[in-house]
Amino acid sequence: MDCQYVKLEKKGAIRSITYHSDKKQNLLTIPGMQEILWAIEECRNDENCRALLFTGWGDYFCMGGYLGDYKNQGAEEIIQFADMLTELHKQMSRFPKPTVAAVNGHTGGGGLSFLETFDMAVSVPWAEFSLPERQNGLAPMISLIGVQNSLSRKICMELAGLGTVIHAERAMEAGIINRIAAKDVMEEATDYAMRLSDCNVRAFGVCKQFYVAASGMSYEQQLETGKQYLVTMLKSKERKQT
C-alpha cells in the first residue's frame, strides 16, 4: 500500500508505525486511520514481527479525531467516522503481540483513549494529557472508553468538565503511561518493545485476550473465564517449546 500518513519500519523483531496527519495536532482522519489499520494488519501477518511500536509526529502523539464540519454532515458520515475510530481501537487492543506507545507529545480526546489500547507506554516529560472536547461545547464519549479503567471517576469528570490538563508525572501515577523517558522517547520505547519481544508472544497474546474479556466481569466470572484461558496459555507455551 502506498501510504501518505503512515510510515512502517522494520527494526529486527520490532515493527514501528509512525503516524503523520495532515491535520494540526496529529488528528486522526478516515484516510489516516485506514492506513494505520493496514499497517496493523501487515504487522499481525508478519511472522518475524514480535512486537509493535507506535508513535506520532512533531509535538503531538494524537489529540483525537478530525470529523470536519459535523454540523453540516449527515448521520451516515458521522457513523462512518465513528466506525473507523472504534475499529482502530479494537484492532490495536486485540493485536496478538506486545504493543508499546512512544508518546512523543501532547495527547488528548480520542488520542487518549487510543493510547489506552497499548500494552505499555513511554512518554516525553513535557507531554500533556487532556479531554479537550469541552472547548467545543461537547462531551467526550469514545475518549472516555478505556481511560475510565485507568482513572478514577473524579479525575475523569475533572478532565471532561473542567478541561484539566494532566502532566506526564501525574499521568504515570494514574497508570496512563509506564514511564517518562529520561532521554530519547523512541529509544526507550524500543527498549521496552525489545524486552517484550523476548517473551512467549503467543502466551502474551492470550493474556491480552483474557484482560479484555474479563473487563467488567464479576470475580466469579473472571475465575471461570481464567480457567479457559489458562489452558490456552499453557498449550501456547507447550507449542513454543516443541
UniProtKB/TrEMBL annotation:
A Pfam family that the UniProt record links to this protein: ECH_1
Gene Ontology molecular function: any one: catalytic activity
Superkingdom of the organism of origin: Bacteria
Annotated coiled-coil segments of the chain: none
InterPro entries, sorted: ClpP/crotonase-like_dom_sf, Enoyl-CoA_hydra/iso, Enoyl-CoA_Hydratase/Isomerase
Family to which this protein belongs: Belongs to the enoyl-CoA hydratase/isomerase family.
Protein name listed in UniProt: Enoyl-CoA hydratase/carnithine racemase
